[in-house]
Amino acid sequence: VASAEIITIGTEMLLGQLVDTNTAVIARALAEIGVDVRRETSVGDNEASIAAAVVDAIGRAEVVVCAGGLGPTVDDMTRGAVAAALERPLVLDPESNRHLEAMFARLKRPMAENNRVQAYFPQGAEPLPNPHGSAPGFVVERDGRAVLALPGPPRELQPMLHDHAVPWIERRFTPNAVLVTRVLRTAGVGESDLDARIAELFRAQKNPSIAMLAHPGLVDVKVTAKAATRGAAHAMIAELEPAIRARLGDCVYGVDGETLESVAGALLRRRGMTLAIGESCTGGAVAAAIASVPGASAYFRGGVVAYANEAKCRLLDVAPDLIDRYGAVSEEVAGAMAVGAQASLRADVGISVTGIAGPDGGTPEKPVGLVYIGLALPDGSVSIRRLDWPGSRDAIQRRAVVAALASLWRALRYSDN
Amino acid sequence: VASAEIITIGTEMLLGQLVDTNTAVIARALAEIGVDVRRETSVGDNEASIAAAVVDAIGRAEVVVCAGGLGPTVDDMTRGAVAAALERPLVLDPESNRHLEAMFARLKRPMAENNRVQAYFPQGAEPLPNPHGSAPGFVVERDGRAVLALPGPPRELQPMLHDHAVPWIERRFTPNAVLVTRVLRTAGVGESDLDARIAELFRAQKNPSIAMLAHPGLVDVKVTAKAATRGAAHAMIAELEPAIRARLGDCVYGVDGETLESVAGALLRRRGMTLAIGESCTGGAVAAAIASVPGASAYFRGGVVAYANEAKCRLLDVAPDLIDRYGAVSEEVAGAMAVGAQASLRADVGISVTGIAGPDGGTPEKPVGLVYIGLALPDGSVSIRRLDWPGSRDAIQRRAVVAALASLWRALRYSDN
Fold first, then answer.
1. Is residue A353 packed enough to be buried (19+ CB in 10 Å), middle (13-18) or exposed (0-12)?
2. What is d(CA B277, CA B268) in angstroms, rounded to the nearest whole number?
3. Between the CA of residue B164 and those of B171, B177, B200, what are the distances in Å?
């Protein structure tokens, strides 16, 4: 198994102004091809620090992947630092230089001279193309070991990593062990409950290993297998998965990259049903989650963000009297909003959220964190869920969105329509 | 200025299954007391790796802060690794042992024998209390340098860091420099343009230093000053800020924690104006951004997520004829949606977004990434912006939200109402 280290470059990380998400992305990609990441180091925008980290890392590992410091500014020092660490000069790559000039010409913007530094690489390096930015990456080898440099912005790093860096490493180091992860996504059951359900399996298992990762309202169960081939790893997981699912029960809504909104969307599509949303305290976030799924227009009619009470009445046909009598945050109004969304947007299913996200607006009877979720189904039935969590405005809004999507998923799942 | 390194411990980070957020939290806390974080290292749950990282770090820095590996399981190796790195035995701390036993008694749970390892520390260490979990931290000194070990779970780490670790470091290393950062937030100007505007200042300045951080559609300019006191650092920034602002021009929408939505919201509130939103391709995300601001109910009337064309006509009074003639993604429909949102929600300002987020639905004339933003103001004027970026569905939606909020901010800023 090839060994690797990751070096992330940026003073902002060492000042705590930026959370480093690149390491996790790179580490996952390397794990998937069976490369063993032994250490990760973050250093600031300082040529000597970067060079020292590269020298240390290449002394311990076969592959060193650097992220950051490839831009055109004086703060971008990775090119020079890698060259210094490997004792190579920086040389101009004519092809990259032409590519840079062409890119600026296409954007109809003058190319500042400082941009040209992005066409310089340590002697012997192979540039890695960057279709999403002006900074090419590169890979350079010495004594059977390799240093790769990728740009820091995630939307530039990720395509270069997956399209160029990982395939290069895979070709060059022909790893003989791969890691495959299967994620079972659950909703509505707490982490400690799930832990109790699978504790016995969890403790016994080393390969595949089982781990849990909790998000607000959701818990992912990750099963990871190590084997010589991808197929063998998949087979190990396939053998174990039924036993895990049997213990988890009916809270598994999806696997791997699936989300509550993608799973609910697929169920709507399969059943030929359409959806409308009427929401207040979540402010449009439930609709935005539904609309984030490619192809949502096949089933998503739209939504009303009924923040003011008048909007609830005018656009969702909630009777003003109902609001006066029970309050805007009530079982009755949640039901009327779900039915109103369903009717006014001519959808099969209507879902509503009304609640108090805070920080102000709570009372002893209706505290901050009280949320009602309404669900109107094609058969005319209306169901309401009452939820009550403390927390910040942001946390309450996020939990309410998850709860609304989970209610939708559960209703669709058991719908025989 | 005291120097520090951070070591985060956990195999999940090196497998890419967990993003390390502890480093940013620790780094920010250390920066605030003027401690200079030079490097961060992540290692797996392996005693030899952790010990090697501690030995390296303590050879370079005066303070080493470790996070993770303090739990009761066989995977938790930080206590032993720090003891090995400093060549000290692990000894039982009777006080911590009593505390652990009392905690389990209070929880009415039997204390498993493996929990007792949490009362062992490297000889000479001072335990750091953990009110949120069973794992105490500790600090241990050698030759005028210090290693601190904190638990990995953020809700345990953060109180211990702020209540115990940082005060200890501050007392022990009496730092004579604090770092203060001021962020000027800009919209509508690219990173390289901004860089060119402030390059001269940027290169000349070491303290305060100037750095840029680009987000989609937005660029933050960060000014960081180092001084003996917080007041002196603030004064250095205050002296430089006018010169930076003069060069940045009118693209600065806010400072520090302000966002486009919070700044636009404050302008609406100050002008006594209300807002309504009609959006299609952003699916509710513009409304959700507006509603994420505490107190938004004072000015936010609501929105319509007009995903289906019928919703545009029924809820936003867009003439069906207009959609037939120009298409749902057109200047004409964007204008009608803004006016329709303004009218149907009885708001002073209406803002609309219609576009093609993809991945499907594009044509040669109207490609994926084409977005129109409409703005209807109280004086009856309607303006439209046309935008066209390539990218993923998610990227297009996010850019459209930022562009809609930026249009709103610019309109309100220059409104004399």
1. buried
2. 14
3. 11, 20, 42
CA angle B345, B346, B348 (to 5 degrees): 115
Find the residue in B nearest to A181 (Cα): B17
Contact B24 A13 (CB under 8 A): yes
Q: Does pTM surpass 0.80? A: no
The two beta strands, B218-227 and A370-376, are unpaired
Cα B247 from Cα A179, distance rounded (Å): 51
Do you know the residue count of chain A? Answer: 417
Instruction: Assess A361–B contact: CB distance below 8 Å, yes or no.
Output: yes
Chain B contact for A39, CB < 8 A? yes
Rounded to whole angstroms, the Cα distance separating B332 from B329 reads 8
The B residues from 297 to 336 touching A (CB cutoff 8 Å) are 297, 300-308, 310-311, 314-315
b/e code A144-157 from CB counts within 10 Å (16+ = b): ebbbbbbbbbeebb
Nearest CA in chain A to B310: A345
**Residue contacts between A and B (CB atoms, under 8 Å):** 273
Strands (E), A57-114: 63-67, 90-92
ipTM surpassing 0.85, yes or no?
A: no
Shortest Cα distance, chain B CAs vs residue A142, angstroms: 24
| Interface test with chain A among B26, B38, B307, B354, by most A beta carbons within 10 Å | B307
pLDDT values of chain B reduced to their tens digit, one per residue, 417 residues: 789 999 999 999 999 988 999 999 999 999 888 899 999 999 999 999 999 999 999 999 999 999 999 988 778 899 999 999 999 999 999 999 998 888 888 777 778 777 888 999 999 999 999 887 888 999 999 999 999 999 999 989 999 999 999 999 988 886 567 778 899 999 988 887 888 888 777 767 778 988 888 888 899 998 989 888 889 999 999 999 999 999 998 999 999 999 999 999 999 999 999 999 999 999 999 999 999 999 999 999 999 999 999 999 999 999 999 999 999 999 999 999 999 999 999 999 999 999 999 898 899 999 999 999 999 999 999 999 999 887 889 989 999 999 999 999 999 997 654
Distance from CA of B253 to the nearest CA of A (A): 20
Q: CA nearest B25 in A: which residue? A: A16
CB B128 within 8 A of CB B138: yes
CB B280, CB A277: distance < 8 Å: no
Mutate to test the interface with B, among A23, A55, A107 (most CBs of B within 10 A): A23
- B15 to chain A, any CB pair closer than 8 A? The answer is yes
B87 DSSP assignment: T
Specify the amino acid at residue B120.
Y
